[in-house]
Structures are given as structure tokens and as C-alpha cells.
Amino acid sequence: MVDTLWLALGGLMLYWLLVTVAQQRGWLPEQVRAQGPITTIHTQYGKVLLDRLSRPKRFWRAWGNFGVGMSLVVIVGVFVSVIYSGIVAVSNPQPTAINEPQNVLVIPGVNDFLPLAVAPEIIFGLLVGLVVHEGGHGLFCRVGDIDIQSMGLALLAIIPIGAFVEPEEKSRLEADRGTQTRMFAAGVTNNIALSILGFVLLFGPVVGSIAVAPGAPVGDIVDGSPAANAGIDRGDRITAINNQSVANESDLDQTLTEIEAQQVSVTVEDSNGSETTTQVERELFLTHTAPGVVDANMTTGENGTPPHIQTVNGSQVSTRAEFYETIETNPVTTVTTDNGSFELIAGASVGRINDDSPLADDVPDGASVVITEVDGERIVTPTDLQRSLSDTSPGESVTVTAYVNDTERQYNTTLTDGPEDHGYLGVSLHRGTGGIVVDDFGVFGYPAEQFLGMLGGGTGFSIRGFLSQSISVLFLPLAGAVGLTSYNFAGFVDPITNFYTISGPFGFLGEGVFLLANLLFWTGWININLGFFNCVPAYPLDGGHILRTSTEAIVSRLPIKNGRIITRTITTFVGLSMGAGLILMVFGPQLFN
């Protein structure tokens, strides 16, 4: 079967050929122009409407002046951010999914963070953003008495991709700098204003109509795990274990830890609303290992599935409860998997000792450290260490027992002040015990409650809260990549909608609330990014024009000659710097790593 992408590219090339032939033979109407696969439709309609809208000119000039000030702040911020990111990309190149070249393109399905499932909402937000952006330019042309040559739509083949306003060039050049600057800033101002309006609606009544459904949301399943073998799937909600209700992910984890039986009865509600009960035969397996704890060839089982744990110190174990009960008596344990055996120091594995840690002077740099006791109290997991320290105070002396490079050591340590009220040891810890994480079930929880909270669910409105939520929303599509959560957020799409229920002011819309939320989310996200992008101080973007007119205004007031040369030098330097910074941001980590 021919790939859909190749069919689309073939259709685009055929369209390009036909339009080129039609243009050469004069078959296209005067209003239609083509350049490659891009077709523009020019019209004079809408000028009367813009003339009417522009009549309260004093109001629009005040709005335009506000937009110029905001745009200048954003331009400076964008310039500093891009240059700093470019320097970091060279000095400390760390390739990530964010700076992969395909993720620069705002194309659903190509960009890893813009899934095809929400392509209609993304395209809607982009089209609305382009219309209000170009509409702002057109409106401020008329406010400043700049003639408009034409307006219209831009299409990729037959697909609308934007709108445009084409000022009459001579009329624009005759306008004063202030008029031109307000006109160039108008598009950015409208995009940011539209984002604010969309986020106000989203954070308020729309998200207020969405609540987290009861149960543990399943974000993913470990291949070959007991849950996968039992037919539990992504998008399911686990609502009960052995007929005991489960409220959320932490409740599920605690319930499974407390149950010692190898077989458990699991009640699941799928994305279709069907509830089923299945039996899960628990089996212990490795889900994560810190570097250096287990040989690389032992971290993957058959067919890429995680290795299963057979015995610990010769005793057969099937559940986490049995595993932790076995390792608690002896820090040094032998773990046997279906890939072989390895020795484990069971304790709180230290990933990094901070410079302000009281252990910093005692432990050699780069040593592997596993804390097994504090004042004689057995430490198995990071939770045990946190609980032990919670009863201490800064300045208190404690005895820390740790295995340093596999050799047991004791340190009489004086705890210091830290971010919490209790004593501070100043170490960053790996998950699990001894640097390994084990599981006997095999599901990864989806942070449904966390995402809803970032969108304002369950909180009242405040300016500070609105700004905080707006910043959070900008990172939600990248949340998993930047470490905010374990998943990226693409909106309320199937099967994620199974993790939420509808109620509140828009409850009468039913499932339509999810569509409305997605439209507002992506419209706000696309528009604020569109506004920031157009503030890049480089031609032919609005930021480049604003930089030029603003620089001219400043230079013209200085007692110097050759003002045009100085203006051109400044704008050229800034533009080239931005271009270099953007190239380094995208390609630097791959080139210099």
C-alpha cells in the first residue's frame, strides 16, 4: 500500500504542474496568483469594513502604542533567549527531542509534540491566528491612512494556510515612523490578546466543567507484564482491586503493595464505558536500573520485554511486598533474573552529592553510594530516608551507614539547613532501592489530576494564577520532554477523555466540552507562539520592521551623521545574530555533540 505521505506529495506536485501550465497560458483569473504550490487569492472586499472599524482612531492609536511597548519587550526577550540558547547549544550540546529539526515545523504528525489527533484544532487555531494577525495589520493601515493594495487568502494547493494584507508600498513609506511601527506591531498584539482571551475562557468555565474520574488512569502498559497479559490497555481506568475501590494512582500503588497474594482481581473501565473484571497473575520484573548497577546485557529480557526476577537470596518472590520483605534483613543481596544474577546493595541509592551536603568532604568524587542506615534505622528506599530525616533538626548529629564503592562505611554527620524544616543531608537519590526499580503489575499512571491542575481545575481566578497557568500551558505539549511530568499533553483526546468527567457550567455540552477545551487550548498556544515568532528581530518578520523603525527613531535624535548607515548596521547585526542563534538552537546539539 502506498504511504499516505507520498500520495499527498504526489498530489501536491501534480497541482503545482497544473497551476504552472494554467498560469503560463493565462487561464488563471486576475485575482489568483501562484508561486510554486502556494496560491494566493487577492480581493478588494473587506476594505469598507476596515474603514468602518478604524473610525475610533484615538482608541486604536492608544491600543497600538500599548502593542508597540509590549512588542519591544517581547523582542528583547526573544533576542536574549535565542542568543543564550545558541551559546548553550555550543558550550553544552545536549540533543533532545525538543531541538530535533522536524520539531521546528508546526505540522501535526511531523512535529513529535503536535499529534494528528488534534490536527483540526491546531489548524483552526493557526487559521484564526493568521486572520487576526493580518486583520490587525489591515486595520492599522487604515488608522494611519495607509492605502491597502489587496487582501486575501493564502493556500497550499487547495488547503487554506493563512490570510494576508498587502499595503500599498508608496503610501506605507510616506507614513511616519509611529504609524508604521503601530501597523507592524498590530498583528503580534492581536495574537497575544487572542491567546489571553482563549486562556481566560479555558481556565475559567471550560476547565471548571471538567473533573478527574475516579480510579487509576492507565497511561501505558509494560510489554510482557502481568497487566498486559491480562488485557489491561492504555486509556483504561482501574477502579478496584479485589473489590476494594481505587481512587487514584497512589491508591492503586498502596493497595497492590499491601496485598501479598500473587493473584489479584482487577476491575477496569475502558474508554467505551464498559466495566470488566479480570484476574492478574503478578510476577516481579525490573522496570528501571541506574547506570552501573546491572550489566547492560541483563536489562532486557526476551523480545525486548523487561527481565523477570526469579529469586532474591535464593528465595522465590512474586510481588513487591515479598521483594522488600526479603531485602530488608540484609543490605547485600543476590538477585537472580531470567537473564542471570547480580549483587545488589539494597538501600537509598545516591545519584549526586550536592556541594552543600555534609557528606561532600567525606565521600570521594564519583563514588557509588548507597545509604543503608541512619542512626541504626534500616534504610531501603528514598522514602525511608526522607521519613528518617523528617524527625531530625538542622545541627543534629546522626550516624550514616553507607556502602561506598561496595565497601561499608560509617559517617558521623552534622545535618545542615535545607529547603525543608528538618535536617538536610544534601543528596539526590535514584528511584527504587539500590538503583533498581521493580514492579509486579506493569502499568504507568497518567497524570490526569496534575494536568487538570495546571489548566486551573479546582482553583479560583487571580492575575498571578492566570500568568502561572499561561506559562504552564506553553510547556504542556512538551511536558514529558522538559521533565514536568512523564507525559506530553496534547489536549483532551481519546482515550485520555476516559480519565475525566463532565459537569459544571458547560455540562450540558457533554463530550463537546472536550472539543471546546481543545480548541481554546491550541488556539491560545498557537497564537502566543505565533506572536513570539513574529517578534524575532529579523526580516521579513514584524520584529525586524519594528526594530528598524524603533532604531531609526532613536538614531534620528542623536547628534551624529550617517544615521541610515548606523541603523542599517544595527539591524543587520541583530538579524544575523538571530539567524545564527536559531541555527545553533536547532542544529547545534547535533553538530557539536
Automatic annotation (TrEMBL):
SUPFAM superfamilies according to UniProt = PDZ domain-like (SSF50156)
Q: Which GO terms describe its biological process?
A: membrane protein intracellular domain proteolysis
Query: How does this chain sit within the bilayer?
Result: Multi-pass membrane protein
Work out whether the entry's keyword set contains Transmembrane.
yes
Q: What is the annotated localization of this protein?
A: Endomembrane system
Q: Sorted alphabetically, which PROSITE patterns does this protein's record hold? A: PDZ
Sorted alphabetically, the Gene Ontology cellular component annotations on this record are:
cytoplasm; endomembrane system; membrane
Q: Which UniProt keywords apply?
A: Hydrolase, Membrane, Protease, Transmembrane, Transmembrane helix
Q: Which CDD domains match?
A: S2P-M50_PDZ_Arch
Domain PDZ intervals: 197-248
Q: Name one GO molecular function term.
A: metalloendopeptidase activity
Q: Which residues form the signal peptide?
A: none
Q: Does the keyword Metal-binding apply?
A: no
TM helices/strands, residue ranges: 6-23, 62-87, 113-132, 183-203, 471-490, 502-522, 565-587
Tell me which InterPro entries the record gives. Answer: MBTPS2, PDZ, PDZ_6, PDZ_sf, Peptidase_M50
Name the chain's protein.
Site-2 protease family protein
What is the species listed in this Swiss-Prot or TrEMBL entry? Halocatena salina
